[in-house]
From TrEMBL:
Protein name, per record: IS4 family transposase
GO biological process, any: DNA transposition
Residue ranges occupied by any Transposase IS4-like domain in the UniProt entry: 2-114
Highest taxon listed in the record's lineage: Bacteria
InterPro entries: Transposase_11 (IPR002559)
MF-aspect GO terms: DNA binding; transposase activity
One family name in Pfam for this protein: DDE_Tnp_1
Amino acid sequence: MALTGGNRHVITQLTPLLEAIPPVRGRRGRPRRRPDSLYADRAYDFDKHRNLVRARGIEPRFARRSTEHGSGLGVHRWVVEQTIALLHWIRRLRTRWEIRDDIHQAFLSIACSIICWRRLNKHSI
């Protein structure tokens, strides 16, 4: 998760988010690697962004511009949309009242931790 201004375009955060992805742990003794693919919406469908993702060894799965909906990527993107909806359940995060961004970042981190804990707790039973 990354905290930016409300008037920033999502494209500006592609590089920092790609650099923030930690290597996926494999079996013991195997080298760590990056995720195999990255799913994104039509805003990222430019050769510049595809090449940036490929340079890191990740296959871009971006929805194509000027095509009809129903590409099948919604199955994977639904997880992200659901998490954003869960963040909006927390009233403190729905509208930003804090002036300092570090305080808002702390509340956002706590909310993400709670969402992950609930999801892991639900699947472990």
